[in-house]
Amino acid sequence: MRGCDRILSGHRxxxxxxxxxxxxxxxxxxxxxxxxxxxxGPVAALERRVAGLLGKPDAxxxxxxxxxxxxxxxxxxERTGNRTVALHPLGHLEVHERKAYQTLTGLRGVWATTEPxxxxxxxxxxxxxxxxxxxxxxxxxxAGFLLPxxxxxxxxxxxxxxxxxxxxxxxxxxxxxxxxxxxxLPTVAGLADSVYVSLYKTLGGLSGxxxxxxxxxxxxxxxxxxxxxxxxxxxxxxxxxALGGLDRELPRLPEYVAHARTVAAALAExxxxxxxxxxxxxxxxxxxxxxxxTALNAAVLALAEQQKTWFANVFTDRSPGLAMTExxxxxxxxxxxxxxxxxxxxxxxxxxxxxPG
Length: 357
Hints:
Blueprint: E1 6-7, H1 16-24, H2 41-54, E2 58-62, H3 65-80, E3 84-87, H4 92-95, H5 100-103, E4 108-111, H6 121-125, E5 133-137, H7 150-162, E6 166-171, H8 178-181, H9 185-189, E7 194-198, E8 209-213, H10 215-227, H11 236-248, H12 253-267, E9 274-276, E10 284-290, H13 293-307, E11 309-310, E12 316-319, E13 322-328, H14 338-353
Parallel strand pairs: 1-11, 3-4, 3-5, 5-6, 6-7
Antiparallel strand pairs: 2-8, 7-8, 9-10, 10-13, 12-13
């Protein structure tokens, strides 16, 4: 991928030297001051900025989103007296974190639906047992980066509140979700009692996450962050990288989301292709092509070697005869026309047809 001249999905991975140069170029007025010391410095500046962007009174920096969300759910469980969390079985906490919220934090999950979509307000309202917190992943990544409509999201939140529950947004990719919802970040975040956002999945930072909410909530979250081992001595590189990402990537997200629709439409024209959702809700979506995945992955590498073109990341077999990959339309893809996308896709399928096996 680093050797390719054109990239359709994702970003070229930077070298350590390039990362260091990026950090030095961040517009942060305190570069001549001392760095953070268990907080403060660029970490505090980042917390203030993200809290302002989300319209929340305060925000707390965490080294990982896994830790941030465990702390958020633990705080709400203590306040509501109910350790049950309503969430989706395809959500990040269930699929990608080894069920840490259960194993480490002692919480229990219930599912409003097992369908590969966002839950409905009626499903939340009809849950057959009490729950203290509703967790909503925006977008629901493993279902195809799916979002509800603005009215559906409002109804979902109202249904949780009618059950006496708190609402937490897993907003790892909230930054790019606002366009489909048709509202700005403070309006969307304002629906939830707490919001988690990632600092690297969209912003291109090094690592880290922010947990935002009311000041009494963030004070409690800071105490639990310390207990979980998340109060690191210094985290200024991650904070600076995130500040740079806010400056660089946030203004470009409307372009990414709009161009994703062009890319998705062109990919949908390939023989045997399926794009889901048909009109992407964000700048990410699923692409399904005739498999097997081994042949498609071999073709991706062959296309990179022969044409210096990076088409997509790893394909996985998902159903008989079809393999799926997640497409991310970012800055490198903006130079691609629909015709470029189609031509590269056809070349990929031709190489896959000739791959061993």
